[in-house]
Specification:
This protein is mostly helical. The chain contains 20 helices and no strands.
C-alpha cells in the first residue's frame, strides 16, 4: 500500500535544505541590509517587501488548484491534460497579473505619502514599489510553473530554483551594498533574479511535459469551471490564513502599542520554528493524495492520512516541548530580558502549531480529493473567532491574550470540528486515530517534558546551555519514540537505512 508520496525522502531533504538555507540567509543578510541601508532605508525595504506580499492573494488559489489537476494528469499518463491545465491556469492568472502591473505606478506614487517617507528616500521608495509590484505581477501567472513541479512531485527541482535564487539575491545584495549601492540597485537585482528563477522553472516544466506547455491551443475554457470551483475555496482559505497569521501583530500594536507589537513579533518568530520544520514534510501529501484519488485507491488514502499525521506529530511534538519549556531562557539569550513577556506568546503559538500539525495532513488529503469547501468555511470561521478572541483577550490580559486567542480558535476549529470531518470523509475512525497517536507519542512527550523541566531548574543563562538543553529534550523524545512510535518493521528499515548511509551505499 503506497502511503508515502513519490520520492518522499528526496523531496523531504530538498524541502528541508531550502528551509535551512532560507533561515540561515535571513540571519546573515538582515544585519548586512541594516548596516548597508541604514535604519530608515531598511525600514522602507521591509515595508515594501512585506506589503507587496498581500497582493499574492490575487492568485485566487488558481495555482494551488492546478497542483491537483497536474498530479491527476500525471498519474493517468495524460500529458495532454497536464499541458492544458498549465496553459489554462497561466492564462487565467495573466488577468490579475496585468491589472497589478497597470496599478504599479499608482501604488508607487501613494506609498511615500501613506508611510511618510522622507524626501531623500521618496524617489527610491517609489521605484522600489514599482519594481516589487511588477515582479509580483509576473510571478502571479508564472507561479503555475512552480505548482506544476509540485504536481509532478518534483520538489527537488522546485527547491533547487528557490534555493539558488535566495543565495544569488543574498550575494548580489551584499556586493551592491559593499559598492555603495542603495534601495534601487538591490531592488533591480532582486527582481531580475526572481524573474530568472521563473524562467528556470518554466524550462523544467517544459522538459517534464515533453514540449512547451504554453501554447494557445492548450488553453481550455472547459477547465476553467473545475479550476475555479476549487480555487475559489482555496483563495478563501488563503485569505483566512492571512487574517490568522498576519493580523495578530497589528491587533497588539493598535491595542497595546508599537513596542508591545515588537515583543509579540519576537515571540511569534521563535514559535514559528515548529511549522518551519513540519511544513516541508507535509506539502508533498497534496499532490500524492491527488494521484491516489484519481486512481480510486481509497485504502491508500487512509494509509496516507495516518502516515502523514504520524510524521507531523512526530516532528512537531518535540519542537513544541523545547520551545514551551525553554521559551524564557531562549528569549533572554537571543534578544535580552526586556522581551521576557514574549515567553507566553511562544508557548501558546508553538502549541497552536502542534494543533495544526494534527489536522494538516488531513486538510491536504481532502484537497487532493477535491474536498475544499468545508475546510475553507472552517478556516474563515477560525479567522473571525481568532480575531474576536484576540481583541478581547488582549484588552484583558495583554499581548499573551492575542496568542491565547489564536490557540483557542485553533483547538475549536482544527481538533473539535475539522479532525472528525476528515476522519468521516476518509473512512477512518476518529477514536482509532486518537488512540494510535496517544499510544505512540504520549509517553515520549511526557518523558521529554520531564527532562526539560529538570534542566530548566538548573539555570540556563547562555546560548550553549540552552542549546544543550534543547538537544537533551529532543534526544529523550527520539529515543523513547523509537520504541513506542515505530513498529518493528519500521525500526529495522530505519536502522538498515542508517547503516547503508554510514557505509556509503546511499548517496
Amino acid at each position: 500500500m503506497n502511503t508515502l508520496p513519490t520520492r518522499f525522502r528526496r523531496n523531504a531533504l530538498a524541502n528541508y535544505a531550502n528551509a535551512f538555507v532560507t533561515l540561515a540567509l535571513a540571519l546573515l543578510v538582515t544585519p548586512i541590509l541594516v548596516r548597508g541601508l541604514g535604519k530608515e532605508a531598511y525600514g522602507t525595504w521591509v515595508l515594501v517587501t512585506s506589503l507587496v506580499l498581500y497582493f499574492d492573494l490575487l492568485k485566487f488559489g488558481f495555482s494551488k488548484a492546478a497542483i491537483k489537476y497536474v498530479a491527476e494528469g500525471n498519474a493517468m499518463g495524460d500529458i495532454e491534460r497536464v499541458r492544458r491545465t498549465i496553459a489554462t491556469s497561466c492564462a487565467a492568472l495573466s488577468l490579475p497579473g496585468l491589472a497589478l502591473l497597470l496599478a504599479a505606478p499608482g501604488l508607487a506614487f501613494l506609498f511615500p505619502a501613506l508611510f511618510h517617507v522622507s524626501a531623500d528616500l521618496k524617489l527610491a521608495a517609489m521605484i522600489l514599489v514599482a519594481l516589487s509590484v511588477a515582479d509580483l505581477a509576473v510571478a502571479i501567472p508564472a507561479d503555475t510553473f512552480g505548482s506544476a513541479l509540485s504536481g509532478f512531485q518534483r520538489f527537488e527541482l522546485l527547491n533547487a530554483t528557490l534555493t539558488a535564487t535566495a543565495v544569488a539575491q543574498a550575494v548580489a545584495w551584499t556586493v551592491i551594498l559593499a559598492l555603495g549601492g542603495g534601495l534601487i540597485a538591490i531592488g533591480v537585482a532582486g527582481v531580475s533574479l526572481s524573474v530568472a528563477s521563473q524562467v528556470a522553472r518554466y524550462a523544467m516544466v517544459r522538459g517534464l511535459c515533453g514540449g512547451p506547455p504554453l501554447r494557445r491551443r492548450y488553453v481550455d475554457r472547459s477547465l476553467l469551471k473545475p479550476l475555479m470551483s476549487m480555487s475559489g475555496w482555496i483563495a478563501l482559505t488563503d485569505f483566512a490564513e492571512v487574517v490568522i497569521g498576519g493580523l495578530d501583530p497589528i491587533v497588539v500594536g493598535l491595542i497595546s502599542g508599537v513596542p508591545q507589537a515588537g515583543v509579540y513579533a519576537v515571540g511569534s518568530k521563535l514559535a514559528a520554528l515548529t511549522s518551519r520544520f513540519t511544513t516541508p514534510l507535509l506539502t508533498m501529501f497534496f499532490p500524492h493524495a491527488s494521484e491516489l484519488s484519481a486512481s480510486g485507491r481509497k485504502e491508500s488514502i487512509r494509509g496516507t492520512l495516518i502516515a502523514g499525521t504520524r510524521i507531523a506529530i512526530g516532528v512537531a511534538t518535540p519542537l513544541t516541548i523545547v520551545l514551551g519549556v525553554l521559551a524564557r531562557p531562549a528569549i533572554r539569550v537571543w534578544v535580552g530580558p526586556q522581551f521576557d513577556e514574549a515567553a507566553l506568546v511562544v508557548i501558546y503559538l508553538s502549541t497552536t502549531a502542534l494543533v495544526y500539525a494534527v489536522a494538516q495532513t488531513g486538510v491536504l488529503v481532502l484537497r487532493g480529493m477535491g474536498d475544499v469547501k468545508f475546510p475553507a468555511r472552517i478556516n474563515l470561521f477560525e479567522a473571525v473567532l481568532n480575531l474576536s478572541l484576540s481583541v478581547i483577550l488582549c484588552k484583558t490580559i495583554g499581548i499573551s491574550g492575542v496568542a491565547l486567542g489564536t490557540l483557542i480558535a485553533a483547538v475549536i476549529t482544527q481538533l473539535i470540528i475539522l479532525l472528525p470531518y476528515i476522519c468521516r470523509r476518509t473512512g477512518l475512525k476518529l477514536y482509532s486515530l486518537i488512540g494510535l497517536l496517544a499510544r505512540q507519542f504520549l509517553i515520549p512527550a511526557a518523558l521529554a517534558l520531564g527532562v526539560g523541566f529538570v534542566l530548566l531548574r538548573m539555570g540556563l543563562d547562555n546560548l550553549a546551555l540552552v542549546t544543550l538543553a534543547g538537544a537533551a529534550i529532543v534526544a529523550t523524545y527520539v529515543a523513547v519514540a523509537f520504541v513506542t512510535a515505530l513498529s518493528a518493521a519500521e525500526r529495522r528499515t530505519l536502522l538498515d537505512f542508517l547503516r547503508r548511509r554510514k557505509s556509503g551505499q546511499i548517496a
